[in-house]
Design goal:
The structure is a homodimer. By secondary structure, chain A is of the alpha+beta class. Chain A has 3 helices and 7 strands. The longest helix of chain A has 15 residues.
Chain lengths: ~150, ~150
């Protein structure tokens, strides 16, 4: 059984692992079963319920993939620290203007030049189920966090 | 139609994109549909037929996943260069002693301390079907290479 104290510690650990990594690679599965990934700029820390948010355009192929099959992976890599993090979760498209305003960061203009005025802008909400990580300090032995 | 000249150019382009990135994240799909990724040290350039090789232990869960479902993704991230590469392909476990000797590199001892003497050592062969990439020079517009 995972108590709420365990859950808080797990999320705190996971936040620390990815805090210096700005961009993750989100992998999803296409209709034909092929796996695609694409960079996603991290907009915020992981929330206390184990949720991670990304901005997206709503009418993209990845959203099509996710609406057909919600299971995704987000990987974070720090080659400087030799740290590698795999996050497995469930993705959902969310159109919530208030949440977008809360999460928006100027660096996102690289991907969304019109900012919050992009007509197609939406959020991807990832509910994290599990994370695995490896780093040189732990001699690359796989560590697992279940949320 | 993809001619062999096109194919050579595509592979040359793809080699260049990942040549400075030592480690990719390999994503595969588990029996329950969840997606997991893990770091894989690049052992060689992409071969001229579009094949990428990694060392693995044969009796690992990722091999179990791949034997049940061969479609995988390998992502390569260079945060210095703001470059992100997604490779979609078909994975296969290969136990070929000669190929292992050809591909072995000392840096792999971080993951396989016994080197080529690891009894469980094998290769993962990834046949690349498609790659997508993004970088800051191209203003993060998605570029696609079909092999």
């Amino acid at each position: 059984m995972t108590t709420s104290t365990d859950q808080n510690q797990h999320i705190e650990k996971l936040r620390g692992l990815i805090q210096d990594i700005g961009c993750g690679m989100l992998t999803s599965v296409d209709e034909d079963g092929s796996l695609h990934s694409r960079p996603m700029d991290k907009t915020s820390e992981i929330e206390s319920d184990g949720t991670l948010w990304f901005f997206t355009n709503a009418s993209t192929h990845k959203v099509f993939e996710i609406e057909h099959r919600q299971q995704v992976n987000v990987s974070f890599t720090s080659s400087d620290k030799q740290r590698y993090v795999s996050i497995s979760g469930i993705a959902e498209l969310v159109r919530d203007r208030n949440k977008m305003q809360e999460l928006w960061k100027p660096k996102l203009k690289a991907w969304f030049p019109q900012g919050l005025d992009e007509s197609d802008l939406a959020l991807l909400k990832i509910k994290i189920n599990r994370a695995d990580y490896w780093d040189s300090q732990l001699k690359f032995q796989q560590q697992t966090i279940n949320l």
